[in-house]
Amino acid sequence: MKWWPGALAQTSTHCAIYARLILHGKDYGVHPFLLQIRAPGSHAPMPGIELGNLGPKIGFNTIDNGFLRVHKVRIPRQQMMMRNSSVTREGLYQPAKNAKMNYATMVAIRAGIVRDAGFALGQALTIAIRYSMVRVQGGDRIPSQQGQEVKVIDHGMQRFRLTTSLALSYAMLMTGRVMTELHKRNLKNVIQGEVGLMEQVHATSSGLKALTSDLSTAHMEDARRACGGHGYAWCGGIVDILTTSLQNVTVEGENTILHLQTSRWLLKTIMQALKTKDLSAIPEGLRSGLQGAHVLDQEKSTIVPGQPLSSETLIAAFWHREARVLQEVVTRVLKDGGGEEAMAKSQVRMVELSRTHGEGMLLRNFYEALEKDEQIIREQKGDVNKGYLPVLKRLAELHGIHRLLEQAGDFTEDGHVSRRQIVWCRERRDQLIDSLRYEIVGLVDAFDISDNQLNSAIGRYDGRVYESLYEWAKYGMSISEKGKDGGVLGFDEVMKDVLAEGRRLNGVAHPKL
Question: Which SUPFAM superfamilies does the annotation name (predicted)?
Answer without folding.
Answer: Acyl-CoA dehydrogenase C-terminal domain-like, Acyl-CoA dehydrogenase NM domain-like
